[in-house]
Design brief:
Elements: E1 3-9, H1 13-28, E2 31-33, E3 42-47, H2 52-64, H3 66-71, E4 76-81, H4 82-85, H5 89-96, E5 102-104, H6 112-121, E6 126-128, E7 149-153, E8 155-156, H7 167-171, E9 175-176, H8 179-191, E10 196-200, H9 216-224, E11 231-235, H10 244-252, E12 259-261, H11 269-274, H12 281-294, E13 299-306, H13 313-326, E14 330-335, H14 353-376, E15 382-391, E16 396-400, E17 406-409, E18 419-428, E19 431-436
The structure holds S-adenosyl-L-homocysteine, iron/sulfur cluster and FE3-S4 cluster (F3S).
């Protein structure tokens, strides 16, 4: 009888891609995908712990399966990802949810198949968390779910230790894949018909550091030289490692999208220092100036945190000023969330929730107004969209232009995976509506 799996994914693109790898492993075991976790024979939670609400979300959903598990004892529940990798969290999870069958971490995801086979032979839960062994798993066969885009890891882990961030503790030290393996993977994906390749790493532009590998700009250049029509994207870049060489390679290779996600986090120098970001607001603005010198119309997006310990009204105003100066085309905004084990969690000047809430509302308003202004400039223009799928609610196809702006349009045929030219008829806040030309 056919058995089914379901995966619930939280967190960043790294996790989205890792869920594709988990799906690949389950496929090898003979399970087929099913979109209803209540009908699945195995449910995997791929968790995130970047902020407290990401954790609460996962805990809530795992709790929801308690009743079902009591009725269907042969069903397997597995929990992996960043949350379980935190110190003491696997035990904590086991105490809270003793019916969870398998708990695994970020460093041993590729062993999940063994854990499932082990669990099928015994009643006790299989709890396996490994320390960072500097290992890179190659030869995985992900079941990709994001066509026409394909995610490709280039680095794992992070060495930056921004003082607020849990990632280095749960993902380990930075490791770079061999460039030949990356290039082989991208060639294969392009030959299979993928139209967009997104390179993934916590800090892609430090790719190759500490090894004899080529630099990140050189890697991009080599990938952009692969034959075929496809778009090349990458995330995330750390401002301290953004170089003029990267801007030049972006300008000279049309396959590389003219957009850069460059998280700034704050516009205040004292907060940036306390965050251990290793640049000042002036350094950051200088990098933007270099980028714009090479690619004047490059879209720039960012991540921002408000309410970092000790953030004053002046610090916050500095963030608002920087956001206006850079004129971001969009931004992700977050309220600082205290993460146990990080340096910032030990700082004593934590900001009251109501202050952070007020600040985030002001910031979101500013970011939205900039996004609307950017969208308005599209009115009447022609853009090339890579169609990503169909939006049932809107009854329209959708896709992004190279700058990352979402465009909607009508089509009588399924054009997913095709490049479509649109004449923009409406610029609706964050998204565009157009007619095929
Ligand atoms: N490696 C990437 C992404 C890190 S996580 C980078 O360095 O940009 C994505 C974003 O989450 C970060 O850029 C930051 O803005 C936010 N973030 C990380 N830790 C956080 C915390 N403790 N509280 C609130 N936001 C946080
Ligand atoms: Fe976290 Fe900083 Fe590393 Fe990004 S660069 S993952 S914010 S420690
Ligand atoms: Fe979350 Fe881990 Fe990504 S903490 S944001 S899933 S690296």
């Amino acid at each position: 009888m056919q058995k089914y799996f379901n995966i619930v994914t939280y967190g960043c693109q790294m996790n989205v891609h890792e869920s594709e790898k988990i799906a690949g492993l389950l496929d090898e075991l003979g399970y087929a995908y099913c979109d209803d976790m209540f009908k699945a024979d195995i449910v995997v939670f791929n968790t995130c712990c970047i902020r407290e609400n990401a954790e609460n979300h996962a805990f809530g959903n795992i709790g929801m399966l308690k009743k079902l598990k009591a009725e269907r004892r042969d069903m397997i529940i597995a929990v992996g990802g960043c949350l379980t990798q935190q110190m003491g969290k696997a035990e904590n999870l086991h105490d809270k949810f003793p019916y969870v069958d398998i708990i695994f971490g970020t460093h041993n995801l590729y062993k999940l198949k063994d854990y499932i086979l082990e669990k099928q032979k015994k009643s006790k839960p299989v709890i396996r968390i490994e320390e960072d062994g500097g290992f890179i798993c190659e030869g995985e066969k992900p079941l990709r779910t994001s066509y026409p885009n394909a995610w490709v890891n280039i680095t794992y882990g992070c060495n930056n230790f921004c003082s607020y961030c849990i990632v280095p503790y749960v993902r380990g030290r930075e490791r770079s894949r061999k460039s030949e393996n990356i290039i082989t993977e991208v060639k294969q994906l392009v030959s299979e018909g993928y139209k967009e390749i997104t390179l993934l790493g916590q800090n892609v532009n430090s790719y190759g550091n500490g090894t004899d590998e080529i630099s990140f700009p050189r890697l991009l250049e080599k990938i952009a030289q692969i034959d075929g029509k496809f778009r090349l994207r990458f995330m995330t870049s750390h401002p301290k490692d953004f170089s003029e060489g990267l801007a030049r390679v972006m300008r000279d290779n049309p396959k590389i999208c003219r957009c850069l996600h460059l998280p700034v986090q704050s516009g205040s120098d004292s907060i940036l220092k306390a965050m251990n970001r290793k640049y000042t607001s002036a350094d950051y603005l200088k990098k933007i100036e270099i980028l714009k010198k090479y690619i004047p119309d490059c879209a720039v997006t960012t991540d921002l945190i408000v309410g970092f310990p000790g953030e004053t009204e002046d610090d916050f105003r500095a963030t608002l000023d920087l956001v206006k100066k850079v004129n971001y085309s969009s931004a992700f905004t977050f309220v600082y969330s205290k993460r146990e084990g990080t340096v910032a969690a030990r700082m004593d000047n934590q900001i009251p929730e109501e202050v952070s809430k007020r600040r985030i509302m002001t910031l979101v308003e500013l970011v939205n107004s900039l996004t609307r202004e950017h969208s308005a400039k599209y009115f009447g223009k022609e853009v090339e969209i890579l169609c990503e799928g169909y939006d049932e609610k809107k009854g329209m196809y959708l896709g992004r232009d190279e700058f990352g702006r979402m465009g909607y349009f009508e089509s009588s045929t399924d054009v997913k995976g095709q490049f479509i030219n649109l004449k923009v008829q409406k610029a609706n806040g964050v998204s565009l509506i157009g007619r095929r030309v």
